[in-house]
Write a structure and sequence with these properties.
Elements: H1 17-44, H2 47-68, H3 74-105, H4 111-132, H5 140-169, H6 173-205
Amino acid sequence: MAGCCSHSTCDAGAASPRFRQALWIALGVNAVMFVVEFVAGLAVGSVALWADALDFAGDAANYALSLMVLSWGLLWRARAALLKGVVMTLFGAAVVVRALWAFQHGLVPEPLTMGAVGVLALLANAGVALLLYRFRGGDANMRSVWLCSRNDAIGNLAVILAAAGVFGTGSGLPDLVVALVMSSLALWSGLDIIRHARRDMAHARQGQPAG
C-alpha cells in the first residue's frame, strides 16, 4: 500500500544489479498505472480509481526513493521523503474532498470501465509482485518492496468490488466508501512519512543515524 517502505531510512545499499533493474521496472509500471487510473477516474467519475491511483503514485515514489538511497545522504533522503509525504497528504485530502463533492451531487461512476481498469491495475500489481518475488528473502528493504506490491492487490480488489457494487445497485455509494477508506489510509501514511522525515532530518543535522 501507499505506506509500504515509506520511511526515508529504507536502505537499498545491498541491492543487486538485478534487484535495481526490477525496481526500475516496478517504478515504470506504477507510474504508468497512476496516470491510467487518474485519467480513467476523471473520465468515468470514479473517486475509488483516484484513490487507487494515489496508491500507485505512492509506490512509484517508494521505488524511486529505494533507488536514490544508494547515493544520497540521510538529510537529502529525508527531504525527498518529506516532499513525498506532503504530496501524498495533499492528494489524499483532494480525494476526500472529491468524494464528498460526488456524494453531495449524487454522481454515479460508469462501472464497466471502472471495473476493467481495476482488473488492469490488479494484473499490473500481480506482475510486479512476481517480478520481485525472488527478492522477498533479502534485506528489509528488498522484502518490503515485494510486500508492497502483494498488498496493493487488496486495494485493486476493493476497486473491482466497488465497480460491481455500483453496477448492481445503480448507486455511487460503493465507489465513495472505497475511496474514503483508501484515501484515509493514504492520509495516515503521508502524515507518518512527514513525521519520520522530520525526525531523520533532525538526526542528520545532529550527525546521528536515522531513528
